[in-house]
Amino acid sequence: MTQPDRDRARSADIALGAQQTALRYISAPQRLLRLFRVLLMASPREKEEWPELVDLPAEKAKAELEAKTKHKVHLVETGSAYTMDFRQDRVRIFYEKDTGKVIRPPRIG
Q1: CB distance 78 to 97 below 8 Å
Q2: Do both 67 and 38 map to the same domain?
Q3: Which domain covers residue 38, as residue numbers?
Q4: Which residues of the chain have pLDDT under 50?
């Protein structure tokens, strides 16, 4: 068993710890289904934030993100108006108008 598998199993044990008594009274297939759900929730997810792009020129940061991800990348100047909706397919890069540099970590949303 590899280290990531052990970590996932440990996460599953912790998540199921409070339910251990309840698990004794359910069938084996139901137990497996619950364990499978916990393991899915504990699995690694895609990156949601890129702090390494702070202080880079905005255009360069945009090019890097477009090359690394499938998300639509939007440049947002400080003080500009933008919508507050959350979208999984979008990354916003906030940059300073005067310097052209990224001022906070780009993130999905």
Answers
A1: yes
A2: no
A3: 3-42
A4: 18
